[in-house]
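User: quick one, fold this
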Amino acid sequence: MPVKILSVDDELDLEILLTQYFRRKIRKGEYEFSFAHNGIEALEMIVMQKDFDIILSDINMPEMDGLTLLARLNELHNPAMKCIIVSAYGDMKNIRSAMNNGAFDFATKPIDLDDLSVTIEKAIEHINYVKQSQKEHNQLESIKGELSAATEIQQAILPQKFPPYPELKDKIDIYAMMHPAKDVGGDFYDFFKIDDERIGFVMADVAGKGLPAALYMAVSRTLLHSIGMTGCSIEDCIERTNQLLCSENDKMMFVTLFYGVVNLTTGEIKYINAGHNPPYILRKDNTLECLPTTSNVVVGYMENISYKSEIVKLQPGETMFLFTDGVTEAFNNDKEAYGEERLENTLKGLCGSSCKDIIENVNENLNYFVEDATQSDDITMMAIGIKSL
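Assistant:
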């Protein structure tokens, strides 16, 4: 695209002078000149075309002078349009006024065309820089909009309705939340009815952050949810999910997860912990129990892996609290981690509370600890409590 230059001057000889001097660049399509003879005519052309790069304007003109034209150009708020002011050498007062009011540079009459050529090239460098910056800004705004949409989509695929099963409100209590460190995150929680007696639930953390982790999170959640809904054993569910994730995993990503199935008639939870933070159980005698770690490996990293399940039982009034390491590894301004000890002390005071109260109290305590420090990892929590059997 040629650089479009509008020369504004009531001296007709300047038009001939410019077209003759810059004829090679005009022929090559590098420069494209237009001419106006006063400020009013120039403004009309600018409004109609809107794509002039350089305005080469005399100061002293009839009807509208160059300083007034410059003021009108400023109202257009176009940083990619540069104005070069032209005036007599002795007219330094007006030249200084023009420079103080936003002119890019100036030239004096009689015009030294070699010097003007250098000034135009310098203006073009600034124009290209501004246009590139505007392009990058627009790209960033577009990405920001896409990330905002991705955030909404990601949140939409996670259960958001609490209590989730009104018909079971007297038997089970569930509440969960996720706060991604970036626009989108790699953590996820999920729960789903397998049949009238069993509910599957999962807490997971994809290695990594941002869009790659979010995409892997969506695939992992969809696979586990779909397989779990078939009612197969939890071992089969995790092993099939692992195989499918490994089959298309060139980036060597993986996910830590805790997958459990709670039996609503017995309170028994059969679970597999695949490299994830062990949950806590808030017992009805006001004690806190941390489930033991297991030897199961993470999901999606290695094919043909067998997973071993464990069993724990909840009595009415007892709750399992699940979380990702974004909770315990949340840092304050002194680079101090929230840690397991603070989490345990907070949970000990919440035995017998509703799942919502547990999550909200832990979140409030965590926010108080972190204050205004930057969140470094996704923070996800879920609580599942037995109300009656």
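User: anything notable?
Assistant: The mean pLDDT is 91.
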